[in-house]
Amino acid sequence: MPWIVLCPCRCDFQNGLKREGNQNVEALQKGVTMNAKISSKSLTEIPVTALFPLYGRAKETNEKNHLFQDPYAVKIMGKIDFDFSIYENMKATKRNEMLAGIAVRTRILDDYTKEYFGKYPDGTVVNIGCGLDTRFLRLDNVKINWIDVDLSEIIKLREKLFEKREKYKMVAVSVLDQNWLNEITVAEGQMVMVIAEGTLMYFAEKEVKILFNQLIAKFPKAILCFEVMGIKLQGKVHPSVAVLEIDVTCPWGIEDIESIEAWNPKLKLVKTTALIDQYRERWPFINRAVTSIFPSIKRKLGHSIVQIEIEDTV
After folding, report:
1. What number of helices (H) and strands (E) belong to the chain?
2. In Å, what is the CA distance from 56 to each residue of 83, 99, 212, 304?
3. How far from 191 is each of 116, 125, 169, 181, 220, CA to CA, in Å?
4. 108-129 pLDDT, tens per residue?
5. Domain limits of the chain?
6. pLDDT tens digits for range 81-90
7. Rounded mean pLDDT, 275-304
8. Is the pLDDT of residue 37 over 70?
9. Using CB atoms within 10 A of its CB, is residue 85 exposed (0-12), middle (13-18) or buried (19+)?
């Protein structure tokens, strides 16, 4: 299905927000600060990759048959001093493929988060590489403890954009730092949810393994929900930053997702979901056609959401 390219003017997004009614506007006023425009110049290299998902969620909110609504993304776009119209200069097929991916992965992880809330309403969610994600604001059940983790450039920007809220914490740290988990405390025996959306592909595989071992040591019981990309995308420059003429590559891709279980005996694979298999009507025709003829390509050139449980095997 072809996408309608929006006018670079952000009033399209604001008008779309108004059409959704006063309830969303009131929610925005409660969750997002109303200060003057905030510079995005501090976002370089990997942190700048947070901007395209924000743009994608705002566009999805304005879609007639949206998979979710993110009025916060719409508002944040208007608060950041960045020319989001530059993404309209991307090749249309690639842009539409990426927008579909953003919409589908957001919906999948929203559903997994709601499922976790249903089982553990007063649990703890650790969102690694949160970027400008607004999932806590959109899904907050008042009881959940939520921790957004990212590099200092992102957290400094978030602190200017988001108001302080009870049971919500932002941690500015690199998860590659040995002691980063010292910033996080959870109740003994609590089942924790860890999300890593659009994050792990920027690490080398050995770094991902170290991270998983850190999580296992910290959280005896946890459900990990994370995004992986296909092996053939490994080492490529991410398209969302290529259009900005920034050289940010993705070091890690994987095809044999089941092999992750062999990294540690406490890791148990629960589910793997190829993004292209979900809401297929939302994907460009070429993506649907190729993956129908060559299904194995999904794990070579596509992205998946993986659920793995940390089990205490003792």
Report:
1. 11, 9
2. 14, 5, 29, 18
3. 9, 9, 18, 16, 8
4. 999 999 999 999 999 999 999 9
5. 11-310
6. 999 999 988 8
7. 96
8. yes
9. middle
Superfamily for the 11-310 domain: Vaccinia Virus protein VP39 (3.40.50.150)
Q: Which burial class, exposed, middle or buried, applies to 269 when counting CB atoms under 10 A from its CB (0-12, 13-18, 19+)? A: middle
Q: Which residues of the chain form beta strands (DSSP E)?
A: 38-39, 80-81, 124-128, 145-150, 168-172, 192-196, 222-229, 267-274, 303-310
- Greatest alpha-carbon span in the chain: 58
CA neighbor of 252 nearest in space, from 273, 270, 230: 230
Smallest CA-to-CA distance from 263 within 305, 302, 215 is with 215
- Predicted confidence (pLDDT) at residue 295 exceeds the cutoff of 50: yes
For residues 24 and 61, the answer to whether their CB atoms sit within 8 Å is: no
Q: Lowest mean pLDDT: which of 161-165, 190-194, 267-271?
A: 161-165
* Residue 74: C-alpha distances to residues 18, 25, 61, 132, 152 (Å): 11, 10, 8, 12, 23
